[in-house]
From TrEMBL:
It comes from Saccharothrix ecbatanensis. Keywords: Membrane, Transmembrane, Transmembrane helix. The keyword Membrane applies. This is Uncharacterized protein. The chain crosses the membrane at residues 6-25, 45-66, 78-101.
Length: 111
């Protein structure tokens, strides 16, 4: 026995098979990255929505407590209305003055 003898056609078909597997692997990585990116966007939106709802409930609860209790002073009522208004104004100004969005993932180069 001298070992394994392969014909040129068999070697070529093996090389083509390896090449096809490599291309399929690369395409699956790209599809997985796109799916992960889409999932991150959905999670971000859901997380942001939850935080907005919790913040609104907290602010509304404090304002309701300050305005419905007759023994609170005018300063407490002013603070209960003015402080959330300042935060809301700050958030709106920041949101409306965004110049550009960089959607790169940290550590990755732009392709």
């Amino acid at each position: 026995m001298t070992g394994i003898e392969l014909s040129p056609a068999l070697m070529l078909s093996g090389l083509v098979a390896v090449l096809v597997l490599w291309v399929a692997w690369r395409l699956s990585i790209r599809r997985a990255r796109k799916a992960a990116k889409a999932a991150r966007g959905g999670v971000r939106l859901l997380s942001l929505t939850g935080r907005v709802v919790v913040g609104a409930l907290l602010i509304s609860g404090v304002q309701w407590l300050a305005l419905t209790h007759p023994d609170t002073s005018g300063w407490v009522k002013l603070a209960a209305l003015a402080v959330p208004a300042m935060f809301a104004s700050w958030v709106l100004v920041r949101a409306l003055t965004v110049a550009a969005v960089d959607d790169r993932v940290r550590g990755q180069r732009r392709r």
